[in-house]
Sequence to fold (611 residues):
Amino acid sequence: MKILVAVKRVVDYAVKVRVRPDRTGVDTASVKMSMNPFCEIAVEEALRLREAGAASEVVAATVGPAQAADTLRTALAMGADRAVHVLHDPDPARPLLPLAVAKILRALALQETPGLLILGKQAIDDDCNQTGQMLAALLNWPQGTFASKVIIDKDKQKATVEREVDGGTETICLDLPAVITTDLRLNQPRYATLPNIMKAKSKVIKKVTPADLNVDVRSDMEVLRVDEPPKRKAGVILSSVDELLDKLKNEARVL
Amino acid sequence: MAAAVVAGALRRGRAGAGGAAERTLRRLVSTLIIAEHEGGLVKPSSLSALAAAEAIAKENKVSLLLGGSGPTLHKAAEHAASSHPLVNEVLVADSDIFAHPLAEPWAELLRSVQQKGGYSHVIASSTSFGKNLLPRAAALLDVSPVTDVTAISEPRVFVRPIYAGNALCTVRYTGESPCMMSIRSTSFSPATESMSETKVAPITQVDLSFLSEASSRKSSWVNLTSQDTERPDLANARVVVTGGRGLKSAENFKLLEQLAEKLGAAVGATRAAVDAGYVPNELQVGQTGKIVAPEVYIAFGVSGAIQHLAGMRDSKYIVAVNKDADAPIFQVADYGIVGDLFQVLEELLEKIPDKK
Fold:
């Protein structure tokens, strides 16, 4: 079985982003970019499944500008076997939407015929939490979203997925092929070692365009503007618990 | 240059063809809400979706869709029928297939109901159920949904947070109907006004003949492990007390639970506290956990990472107790105490009277 993992290049999670003065978006020109943390977890899970014998090959894919190849190299350095780069230069006013990404990934899935697709549950830039669900719908495959544990039964062609849901943990069983999206709790991604980073340089990254895949990336969403969130007014440091109790009683009125 | 383009787009949207389009739209607004229910009642998060429907249009014809089986479904349908003046119809999908929140049959249901009803808008709440289902249904209908809407300024213009709430993005949906969205329930106050008995909306059974054997069998539900708790639901609580890594152990979280008891509060946690095994995952507040906006949020031993602030920055009052005076949490806190959280906790427990 082959596993296809989708990864996205985003502003590093530790960066405090700034809204551009012209309010057309967030400043991404000179900030550190990294692989989306949920995608790292997806790559790690695919590698662990391969190491456990449940999969024979791990293919990483991304949709993005030329620089997104770095993110694929990271996936290859972690241990992915090869990669596919769907080149797309984003337009800030008409961003590439999850539906378009899902259509691109469907086209790749039909070419690669993986037994399992793993994605992160959301990208930390657009915070959409949509692509995996949409991809599953387009392929008419079952979905296991927000996964915190994945068990593959190769003989029965089934995946048992524990999901993080409001109020607890839900367990579901999916027929393969299926789409799984990762929650933070699924695993601890490995670091790429220097020898593996060197090895990754000789691994193959195939380049294609959405047009090659016959996918229309038209966007149904127009970004009118991007604003800073309202600033909270400066708070006060209290010197005693009694003062806090007084504030809770007389200002917040919860006592 | 880019600014001029956006400004131009804005002007066109207001004065030109966009304005006429909005006017036509306003006449044709009808909304389908996917409502969740529990114990015979519509959940508060779904009542928030009604407030969002009202924000789309004052005269919005709203249909509420409920699924499941058994007497609680029908009790919830009655509740739904009298939950808001805008409710025009309650649609009930009565089948064991919908007893559990599996995305595959639910998305088929939503597609079928939309194709029959031709709604201009479809709303779900950003709960784990809504987030799992809505994008799947949207892809079946070949439309792009909007995630986590926090404000509605026109029927197709929405505000949503991006980058963990560090930027607010205003988008116009320009695609085909329906315009689908998940709403952040803490941004829309649940409709509380109950209607008089005479204005109860009709309840209709959904025709389920669309359900094919194949699609409903690709996934199956095994079980749900839930934390039974007497305390209020984290997402809807008036007061939330949260612990971070500073709490140091699961044992110490008991102190926080005692304080929560006294305040009638829900208990939350940071990712660090969850990862350290002090509390279960579903208590995590933040970009990847729950989004809360209580009256008062009291954070003990929480440093205030970007990802945590994303989940609580809209709280009315934020109180921070931390020994590190430079912790970023103090930049958003209304009231801060720099000191040992255990001393503060003990003193609060001593001085706050028991809830009557």
